[in-house]
Fold this protein.
Amino acid sequence: MFSSAFLNDAREFLPILLQGCWTTIKLTALALVLSTVIGFLLALMRLSPYALVRLPATTFITVIRGIPIIVQLFYIYFVFPEIGIELSAFQAGFIGLGIAYSAYQAENFRAGIEAIDHGQIEAAQSLGMRYWLLLRRVIMPQAIRITLPPYGNTMIMMLKDSSIASTITVAELARQGQLIASSTFKNMTVFTLVALLYLTMSLPLTALAHWLEKRFGRR
């Protein structure tokens, strides 16, 4: 059971921490959309038969996966202003997180597309289907089923990694916890609440990921 002192402190701190939770959710959602769009385009480029299209995507993915996310955030937030690109901490946070995860999303999408029976693609091409129609009618419906389970895991990882944005002063959950702890010195209470809130946000995503694995993993 939690002590009365912990509960009293929790009532005082939770409103501020919940504001951080809302920022974390927005940050994760925007980064997820950005990473999905960029990742899908990169996957299509990686599968292109043309080297001029394929090599830039391969290089981008290799570079992004080889640089820590925190360094990418620092570069976007601190270096970009020197070349005239001014971004708020929140903008730099979701853009950096989205770009960082786009490389992993691209590999998930590429693996899903490559897992499709090539005979189906050849059969569709023999019927005269053009590339975009083939992509929409044959490739994507099957690739989505394959990539959904790892996509669910990516959502969980992105939610947790959103805490890295605190290093560039984004007022998300981890940052709010740091500020409260530094002003009250109640580290155990504050970071216990932060951990519980992250767990609370992660549990629905974890349940979704498990459901997707069971629903589509056998196919």
In short: Residues 4-216 form a domain with the MetI-like fold fold (CATH 1.10.3720.10). The CA atoms of residues 19 and 173 lie 8 Å apart. The chain has eight helices and no strands. The chain has a mean pLDDT of 89.
